[in-house]
Model the fold of this input.
Amino acid sequence: MMNSTQNIVRAKKTSNIKGKNPLAITMWDFSWLERRWTGAGYEDWELALDELKLRGYDAVRIDAYPHLVAENPQKTWELNPVWNTQDWGSPAINRVQVMPALTEFIKKCAARGIKIALSSWFRQDIDNTYSKIKTPEDLAEIWIKTLRLLEEENLLEHILFVDLCNEFPLKPWTPFLPDNFPREIKLPKTNKEVYHWIESSLAKMRKAYSQLKYNFSNWEDENWKNRDLSMMDILDHHIWMAGGEFYQKIGYNYEAFDNTGYENVVKNGEITYRENPEYWKNILWQRIQLAADESRSLGVPLCTTECWGLVDYKDWPLLSWDWIKELCEYGVIEAAKTGRWTNIAISNFCGPQFVGMWRDVQWHQKMTGIIHNAKIDQDLQSK
Done:
């Protein structure tokens, strides 16, 4: 099993993880800070991180709230909910103070040998602080200010990578972009405006902190040859069986403040999957292979932090975790086989608020064991 203090090297830069085996990573998004009320899962970081380590995880991806840190790191911010149907973050108005919480959390992770991937979903506070981001240079600057505070605490060595924006340029997570901004998530080369934002912000980040890895998390694409992500240090592609055909078939439309979608998942989700599981697994397999092919073409490693079954799920009446875990196990095994992943997640539900999945400690240990025993391709080890 790989030691979590080892390092993986990527593309002539000093990385924080090194070895022949992938890391097991999970996503705690903005939940790590917003879900701290009694029973929400993260009110006791010591306990949550001990449980994370017990399950075999090496890294966690969290929201660093860079726009709020850059504006006023010590301020208590009032945040609007992005939804009330999901169990990530808060279902109602909440208040957070990012600093010193962020540095304290990273220190607790470091004490357990857990690496941190920084990202942002650009949560909307009541004053719309995100609106001050007007240019790609502004985007980089807020991150540089955030990293400077971490540097002052000698914490940069614990940073696995920096994802400048979750699923850029998807609208819910990029409220700073104008309404007419091209939102195509698959990033075709013809989308010059998107590439300007990506390339300009990354250039400024690398000038300030060249020792770190950077990316913009995204999705796999069946037409990946029509885009160019060679400027990324790591590909955090979010890959699910669901979305597209499956969600259309069961009647799920990502409802944010309406239970209709979950009612349809209850009625149609598992039964649709069970009618032809190999068909749905094959869709997932194809998407995994597309991501692996893109990685081979670019020579860039994959890190998937959101995956493999349904995009949205939770503890809910008449919803079973069995079929979700079945899909997630299949995804882990197939991704591990490719040799292209240096960091593999088990699901985007691997946090303490998703009790039905979280409490199955042995299953998590089995999955993280598969990840730790997988091999990374030689071309990625040598970089």
Summary: The domain at 23-381 is CATH 3.20.20.80 (TIM Barrel). The chain has a mean pLDDT of 94.
